[in-house]
Structures are given as structure tokens and as C-alpha cells.
Fold:
Amino acid sequence: MKKTTEKNLMVFSGRAHPALSEEVATLLGTELVPTSAYKFANSEIYVRFEESVRGCDAFVIQSHTAPINEWIMEHLIMVDALKRASAKRITVVMPFYGYARQDKKHRGREPISARLMADLFKTAGADRLITVDLHADQIQGYFDGPVDHLMALPILTDYVKEKYGREQLCVVSPDAGRIKVAERWSAKLGGVPLAFIHKTRRTDRPNETVANRVVGEVAGKMCVLTDDMIDTGGTIVKAAEALMEDGAAGVIIAATHAILSDPAVDRLKNCSAVEVIVTDTLPITADRQFDKLTILSIAPLVARAIREVFEDGSVTSMFDGHA
Structure:
């Protein structure tokens, strides 16, 4: 008996950032699969899909935002439910990869939690990962399967080019480790000059850096300070101050992931930057939005990547062969 089966794309969403998932589904011309999800009295999470998922190509979207452990657990449970319901292929879509900063051991007796995350999703039943702007590229190798590493670079650079293209720009990396990303920014903005901030991170205190020094010529230039994420805002605000002290005409902060843990909002509001540009890989509640914050949608990028994966196309082609 022979039967030619049709591929069936189904999009699922956790409860962490439903607005993003809905926008992605709309761009794909589909709807989110109805899902029952709630907590039991002892805070255990329950998930059940209200439609048959047998034989489908499943894309499970969840942003790992605070409370991060709860949303990661929900994501894992959703993947397990799909595997046990006979989904044909399960692609985990995590616009922000939780625990990505714990990608190596700085000192003895520390975990490599980013690897643990990859192992958990593989064990749960994930066949593939789609994520945006990992903290370190090598995290792709932690997952035993295909990883599509998307970049928000085209979205951010297009906005900066349109709004500030007539200014004398300079791209600034907040540390020496992200020079490669800054080089891509420079190329996208027409080969503008580069600079970076020399800094030292404290190993005994999380989220703290000391000793900012600008390496490169920034005087009189509008500096585009780029990073993958803004958490408490300490690093990026100190870098902006260092640039202004070195004679920069102004500073634009651009980052993919707006974690904005306290006191980030106050720091960014009161810093010297003229604009803070981020994407909505993570939900940004109204109380964490402020006048100079610009939020760009990541949904078109995620939706296109899902379409390429579903149609066996090329995700790399979305980024001129650099992904």
C-alpha cells in the first residue's frame, strides 16, 4: 500500500510572549494551534494541544523571559507532548536562548548551563533549533542536530541606515570579543569606521564591569554601540559614557535582546544615548518602555526562517551566506 503524504505546518506558542507568536503565525498565513496550559496547585505546569498533531511539522515558539525557569520548563513540556502525540518533526523556536551566557567555565566547579539547555531539548524530543543572536556562536555545536542561527543585524542596520545614514557614523563594539559582529555592522552601513571598548569583567560579581577605555577614533562621530543583549544596562551605559567623554557627537545603542532587568530602565532613561533600539525577541511590558526606546519586530525574520525550514529552503540565503 502506497500513500503520498503532504507536509503539514503547525505553529505552537508558549505563554511567555504570545504577541510575537501570533504575529509570526499571521505572517505565515496560519493560526496558532489551540493549547490548554495552566499550573496545578503545587505550581507544576500542564500542557495539552486541542488538535491532532500526528505527522505534522511542528514549530514551537517560546521566548525565555523572566521567570525564565518556568518558561523553559513549559517549552520542554510542550516538546514532550508533541513527541508523544507523534509529530513528525519538532523544531524548537527560541528567539532568546536561556542560559546562553553560561557557555563556558570561567572557574572550577562551575556548570556549562548552555550545553545543559541543548541536552534538555534534545532529550525532550526536539529535532531542530531556531534561535536569534546567540551570545556565543559555538553554542550551535552544543545541540546534536541542525541549528538555524538567525541574526537581527539586517533589521537593526536597515533602521539605523534610514534614520542616521546622513550622519558621520562609527560602529562601536562594547568589548573586544564582539569585533566580528561590529565588522558586519560596518559593512552593512557602508564601511564606516570601527572602535571598541576595552573592559574588564569581575568574576566575583555578576553583571559588573570595570575599566572602560575607548580604542579607536570616535571624536565628532555618531557612535552606534551594538551588543547582543541589554540586561541590567551597566555595561552598555558605561560604554556610552566613555564614548561621550572621548568626544563622540552622540551615541545610539542597538541590541537584539532587551532583557531589561532592574535597574536597566532607569539607567537607559538617564544615560547620554540619543536612542535605544531593540527587537521584541523578549516581551517588553509597558512599565519598561520609555521615550527613547524603539522596539523593532523580529517576527518577519522568524517567520521567514520557519518558511525556509518547512519548504527545505536555505536559511543562510537570508543573511548573504553568513548564517
